[in-house]
């Protein structure tokens, strides 16, 4: 199965989780590529009309994993705009994760995951699982839980 991990990451925290996930899935025999969402220029909070320097194509993958940081208690605007610009995810198997600094899932993590899931489902995707990684507290345990959970989804 070809798995695409599509990630938006400003500080490399989200990207580092994607790399660990790629290693885990690859060790199980999956073909896994990481692709980065890169906006063309600065993205302001609440902005949705975003152009991209790098905008990964989802069509060639059997399954997709989307990763993004939480910004201002919501999904990062760049990932929100990217997901909303994907024409179709029809019947693609999907998993979503977010990374965040504040210690509780209720401080933006739940909201960001809900936004990702709703966008993916609206485009016909089948969301198989989600995860929230809190960067400030219990990070390794949450990353390891994500790796184990996502390694059984596809």
Give an overview in words.
There is one protein chain. The chain has 154 residues and is of the alpha/beta class. It has a single domain, classed as Rossmann fold (3-Layer(aba) Sandwich). It is 32% helix and 29% strand. It has helices at residues 13-27, 77-85, 109-122, 139-150, and strands spanning 2-7, 31-36, 38-39, 52-54, 63-71, 74-75, 93-100, 126-134. Strands 1, 2, 5, 6, 7 and 8 form a 6-stranded mixed β-sheet that branches. Helix 1 (13-27) crosses helix 4 (139-150). The longest helix has 15 residues, at 13-27.
List the helices and strands and how they pair.
Layout: E1 2-7, H1 13-27, E2 31-36, E3 38-39, E4 52-54, E5 63-71, E6 74-75, H2 77-85, E7 93-100, H3 109-122, E8 126-134, H4 139-150
Helix pairs in contact: 1-4
């Amino acid at each position: 199965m070809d798995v695409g991990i599509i990630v938006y990451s400003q500080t490399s925290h989200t990207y580092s989780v994607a790399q660990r996930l790629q290693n885990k899935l690859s060790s199980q025999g999956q073909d896994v590529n990481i692709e980065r969402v890169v906006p063309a220029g600065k993205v302001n909070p609440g902005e949705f009309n975003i152009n991209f320097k790098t905008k990964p194509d989802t069509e060639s993958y059997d399954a997709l994993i989307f990763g993004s940081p939480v910004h201002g208690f919501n999904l990062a605007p760049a990932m929100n705009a990217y997901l909303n610009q994907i024409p179709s995810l029809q019947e693609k198997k999907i998993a979503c994760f977010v990374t965040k600094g504040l210690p509780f899932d209720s401080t933006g993590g739940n909201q960001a995951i809900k936004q990702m899931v709703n966008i993916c489902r609206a485009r016909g995707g089948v969301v198989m699982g989600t995860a929230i990684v809190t960067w400030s507290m219990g990070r390794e345990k949450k990353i390891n839980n994500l790796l184990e959970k996502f390694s059984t989804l596809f």
